[in-house]
Amino acid sequence: MVQGMSVGNLRGASTRFDKAEGNRGAMASSDGFYLEFFGLDRRPFTLLPDPGFMYWSPLHKRGYSVLQFGIMSCAPITLLTGEIGAGKTTLVQQLLSEMEQQITVGLISNAQGGRGELLQWVLHALGLPINKDATYVQLFRALQDFLVSEYAAGRRVALIFDEAQNLTVEGLEEIRMLTNINANTDELIQLVLVGQPELRDLVLDPKMRQLTQRVAASFHLERMDEASVEAYIRHRMKTAGGSGEEFTDDACALIFQQTRGVPRLVNQFCDFALMYAWTNEADKVDEDVVNQVVEDGVFFGGNSLEKEAIV
What we know:
Layout (H helix, E strand, L loop, with lengths): L34 H4 L19 H15 L4 E6 L5 H10 L5 E7 L7 H9 L10 H17 L3 E7 L6 H10 L3 E2 L2 E2 L1 E7 L1 H7 L5 H4 L2 E7 L4 H14 L9 H11 L3 H17 L7 H10 L5 H9 L1
Parallel strand pairs: 1-6, 1-7, 2-3, 3-6
Antiparallel strand pairs: 4-5
Helix pairs in contact: 4-5, 9-10, 10-11, 10-12, 11-12
């Protein structure tokens, strides 16, 4: 068994992959790997969020509807949570691609810091100049003036905080205070908080009652079920130029068991499975191929699920 086998050492591996004749066992010099073999025009299972591959599972449809509702209804705060790799960032990117021109959007990822620093993140996301010597009051006034000017021009402002679970209680309270900026009955700024399940726990903390009461729309993205995983795999293969039948039903069921329905882990596993099938000269990813991936220990992402099961 080859433990932790990398792409680089597949050349010399005298394992079951080495059944090829001639130079079939050599790896492609480009990033194509198995693309030509399966008739694909791009890799179907990358780890980077790509709205072009968006698969609308029932959960993702509902999650996206909540995001849209939050923006369209001028909700002060919209909350979207989900596990690592559940597809939150992909939904945010989809939302950004469809945002109306009358809405000015600031996207803030992994914001951290104490009082004043978070406000600088906000100003930077909105493209506003920041005077390094400015006081907190001056920074706040600059934001307030900008919001009023946007409102006067008929535009709304929305701030999207991705990975918002990294914010402290003090940070959440600071951005909550931004929603106090209003013009009579109209909200001048909307907040969309996106993060891992810990974010939901933070927001529900008794100390955060004022923030919780301002959350007008919220949704938690659960993992995909077995049927959704199979549909997800077939959808991504078709989007990449394949037939969608490259994975057998049994293979999809096993992949669901190994990934427990986490989209990012499904992508990681399927990418390996296609590479193994290509190296084996198999035109299908079947149970045998899936078991080879598992036995060789290359699916490193599965370790997090094992630890989760132990906990």
